[in-house]
Design a protein that fits this description.
By secondary structure, this protein is α+β, with helices and mostly antiparallel strands. Among the domains are: about 120 residues, Galactose-binding domain-like (Jelly Rolls, Sandwich); about 130 residues, Jelly Rolls (Sandwich). Helix content is about 25%, strand content about 35%.
């Protein structure tokens, strides 16, 4: 019995730990949805392949599971890029230059440049430069912090990632040699406004009275719009998007129907209800909804739980109709997942990974999606000199990392392991104590029975004395009579 109890406790704890770490527990999801609680929308070109898209994504998305929005392909953006092959006066060898003009300011975290499979990529020669405001000259990315340079083999891409978040209007990348660029992706974040609550109100100082589904927010299968009306010009309609958990929000894209919006304002609120204002960066036309697309960015990145949208359309009715609300989040370095709660493997180079936890690049000698497998000596593609060079570059990169973040990740790992050990020890001692108590109880009962038997034999009871006294009295009477 003791072994069975211990096995049940261990099995329960193992399943609990597995569910917390990996997110197992997915249910059968409707079409175009997948993931835990069906919170992720499929952006594969072939909807039947989710979440394995094989880099075949719908327009406007890219990445392993096609969860990253690509600001280069956004309909309302003015992004264009081209390659200029020329030899610079200050360089002995020819260089290629990639220029990306965003027109207005946009949020930048990282970008991906993909080349032909046969090209040898000298990613260390790549230089990343930015212009932070329209009309400003391009300069070195000092505000970007340390630039992580990572190589992906399938497809053949180079990832350039900033240590910090920043707003840019133009990006320029140059590298040695002439390479055939086949794709350019600039990450606009992952949409977290999926199946969230949307509340509608007429006045900002009152509690919203009803809840309404929005295409792209509550449930993208419900083809309805969120509409709010204002009784006067001073009472602006407003929407509140309430997220399940705080999320790092950098960008909000809103599509309004039919008319442009006046007095448009978006605010972010944290769990303490502290407000953070956003900056309106562009207004464009949306061909999908025949309406207008508006984009906002937050210069101060903080974990937000609520998004409040104010505005009124330019018509006599004073109404505001929204057809799409996108809330884009980009995790801090070393984190992944829709809520940025997962930690990238420490065997990932620079501890950097995709939204699904897959490493951009492994440490030397490691392989696999999460870099958990060791490469065999025969399969090593790097010689010792290359390996030493990569280790040197890794040490240089690690000096630029945030020590606090690394310490926090290690604390979480060791804290989780310690918590699991404590639970196992508690389960063991509780089971042991229950077994010992049962044995002691049976032993005590047996001892009491033995003591009573001995006492009965060695110490006669009162009834025994009475009986003996009667016998003695009867014997004396008999002798006197005789």
């Amino acid at each position: 019995m003791r072994k069975e109890i211990m096995l049940m406790v261990l099995l329960f704890l193992a399943l609990l730990e597995l569910d917390l770490v990996t997110g197992i527990g997915n249910q059968d999801c409707p079409e175009q949805w997948y993931g835990r609680a069906c919170m992720q929308r499929c952006n594969c070109r072939n909807q039947n392949n989710c979440p394995v898209c094989n880099n075949q994504c719908s327009a406007g998305f890219f990445g392993r599971e096609c969860q990253y929005s690509n600001t280069v392909e956004e309909e309302s953006s003015t992004v264009s890029y081209h390659i200029v092959n020329k030899t610079f006066l200050n360089h002995r060898s020819p260089h290629s230059t990639l220029e990306i003009d965003f027109g207005l300011q946009t949020f930048f975290t990282w970008m991906e440049i993909c080349f032909s499979k046969n090209d040898t990529i000298d990613h260390e020669s790549m230089s990343l430069n930015f212009s932070t405001s329209p009309g400003e000259n391009v300069r070195s990315a000092k505000s970007c912090g340390h630039v992580y340079k990572l190589v992906q083999k399938i497809p053949a891409c180079v990832v350039l990632r900033c240590e910090h978040y920043l707003l840019v209007s133009k990006a320029l990348v140059y590298w040695k040699g002439f390479k055939n660029v086949v794709a350019v992706h600039v990450s606009g974040g992952v949409n977290v406004a999926l199946k969230q609550r949307v509340l509608i109100g007429r006045r900002p100082d009152t509690t919203p009275g009803r809840q309404h589904p929005v295409l792209g927010v509550v449930d993208q299968q419900v083809n309805t719009s969120v509409t709010s009306y204002s009784q006067s010009g001073q009472e602006l309609p407003y929407f509140i998007v309430v997220l399940r958990e705080p999320v790092w929000i950098q960008r909000i894209v809103i599509e309004s129907a039919l008319f442009p919006v006046l007095n448009f304002k978006v605010q972010l609120f944290d769990e303490r209800n502290n407000a953070t204002n956003t900056t309106y960066i562009f207004l464009g036309h949306s061909s999908k909804s025949r309406g207008y697309k508006h984009a906002f960015v937050s210069s101060r990145v903080t974990a937000s739980r609520k998004v409040v949208i104010h505005g009124v359309a330019n018509d006599t009715s004073g109404s505001l109709t929204l057809t799409e609300i996108f809330i884009f989040s980009e995790c801090r370095p070393h984190k992944f997942g829709p809520l940025c709660k997962g930690s990238c493997s420490i065997r990932c180079l620079d501890i950097a990974c995709h939204v699904n936890g897959e490493c951009f690049q492994c440490l030397p000698g490691m392989k696999g999606e999460h870099c958990l497998e060791k490469e065999s000596k025969n399969g090593m593609k790097e010689n010792s000199a290359q390996a030493r060079h990569r280790l040197a570059m890794l040490k240089e990169d690690l000096t630029h990392k945030s020590d606090k973040m690394v310490d926090r990740d290690l604390a979480v790992v060791f804290g989780g392991a310690f918590f699991l050990i404590v639970l196992l020890c508690m389960a063991y001692f509780i089971t042991n104590a229950m077994f010992s108590t049962a044995v002691f109880s049976r032993a005590t009962d047996a001892s009491q029975d033995s003591i009573q038997t001995i006492q009965t034999k060695s110490h006669p009871t009162v009834d025994h004395y009475v009986k003996n006294k009667k016998l003695i009295t009867s014997k004396s009477s008999f002798e006197s009579n005789s």
